[in-house]
Amino acid sequence: MPASHQAQILAIPVKRILAVPHRKAGGTNHWCLYLSSSPASSVRIDCQPSYTIPSSVLRGGSKANLIISELPYEISTDAQAQFILDIAPGLSVGQVWGEFTRYGRHKYEFDAMGVGCRCWTTNQINLLYQLQFVGNASQVAAAKAGILKLWPDQTPLPLDQGAYYQ
Q1: How many separate domains does the chain show?
Q2: Most buried residue, 6, 85, 122, 152, by CB count within 10 Å?
Q3: What range(s) does the DUF7770 domain occupy (predicted)?
């Protein structure tokens, strides 16, 4: 998130959150969250392995980079599915980001193969539900069930584990 644009991005109102798997790469889909502000704009929170900053918890892994991007569309064209999470009214990008950092969700590590975004996304959905930012239990269950599949074929795929560090 560019420092010069940070305040503007954090002030963006969120209308809904989408959990999204992208095209397969390396045998799995890459998942991230889109904080939708309209059908034509969103802020993507994308947790990706750094591959250069060594892990302190997972042997051979790497620390994550959380990339926050303001986008002129709701979700990427390479999205394989989308799981809608209705949110409490009045939520902003800054509130979501603030809770992610308050709960240490920005201190994440991927395994040696660079896998772990599905675990991270699941953890954030659980946190958003726990904080009552997301309130529909059936939508939460559907998103978490979707994360346990490979898209678009929808074959079962056990959840890989990442880890949080202090």
Answers
A1: 1
A2: 85
A3: 26-165
